[in-house]
Amino acid sequence: IASNDELHVVATHLDQYRHATRSPEPYWTEALRRDPGDQRAHRSLGLRRYRAADFEAAEVHLRASVERQSLLNSNPRDGEAHYLLGLTLIRQARLPEARALLGRAGWDGHWWAPAQLALVRLDLAAGDDESAVERAVALVEAVPQLNAARNAAVVGLRRLGRDAEAQVILDQTRAADPLDVWARYLAGASLELDPVT
Questions:
Q1: DSSP letter string over 89-148?
Q2: pLDDT at residue 50, rounded to an integer
Q3: Contact 101/82 with Cβ under 8 angstroms?
Q4: What is the mean pLDDT of residues 123-137?
Q5: Contacts of 84 by beta carbon, 8 Å cutoff, 6+ apart
Q6: Do 138 and 152 meet the contact criterion of CB atoms below 8 Å apart?
Q7: Which of 35, 75, 101, 171 has the most crowded Cβ, counting Cβ within 10 A?
Q8: What is the largest CA-CA distance in the chain?
Q9: Do the beta carbons of residue 81 and residue 46 sit within 8 Å?
Q10: pLDDT given for residue 44 in this prediction
């Protein structure tokens, strides 16, 4: 394979379809041999290491991806590497640094919602319910079908004693998706589904 671009295309195909007999990793590794800073290969290998819970290795790859992407542009077009590095740092309990990276990932509209959801969850975990609710409600308004944001808003609103607002959101979520497990849990419903007859 002559170019790193083609190596990336082949690896992405193998990864996307979870090829049964071919791993994408040798293609990304070859891309890094040819160009040690290839941001696509670093991002892809970082994601694979993150999914394998090898957060230290994920961080190395994702930092390299962010560094290359940010070389000439502090706000690169694609925020995926920033988002993934933020998640990786959350797993390593490095929350201030993770927050900054998630904020940067939001520059890219495609990664804004996932980054905001991660920030909502961090706010809830830290007990900053006001901030969590503010973010979650804005996220629900922007992406109404994102049930995870709706459920997070319900948790935050309940903690703040705003039960009526929480109930409205919960009722809307359950009406739109009666099988959403978290919404069922928040409503106090049984998590066991009725058997199909």
A1: HHHTT-HHHHHHHHHHHTTSHHHHHHHHHHHHHHHHHHT-HHHHHHHHHHHHHH-TT-HH
A2: 98
A3: yes
A4: 98
A5: 43, 46, 47, 50, 58, 62
A6: no
A7: 101
A8: 62
A9: yes
A10: 98
**Contact between residue 135 and residue 112 where contact means Cβ atoms under 8 Å apart:** no
Alpha helices by DSSP H, listed for 23-108, are: 25-34, 39-51, 55-69, 80-91, 95-105
The H-or-E segment that residue 182 falls in is helix 181-186
pLDDT for 81 beyond 60: yes
Nearest 5°: the CA angle 152, 156, 160 is 165
Hunting for tokens 């791993």 — which residue is that? 23
Residue 112 has pLDDT above 90, yes or no: yes
Span 7-38, pLDDT tens digits: 999 999 999 999 999 999 999 999 999 999 99
Burial 21-53 (b: 16+ CB within 10 A, else e): eeebeebbebbbeeeeebbbbbbbbbbbbbeee
What are the φ/ψ torsions at residue 22 (nearest 5 degrees)? -130, 130
Distance of alpha carbon 39 from alpha carbon 120, whole angstroms: 28
Cα torsion 60, 65, 69, 71: sign: positive
How many residues appear in the chain? 197
Cα–Cα–Cα angle for 18, 19, 21, rounded to 5 degrees: 135
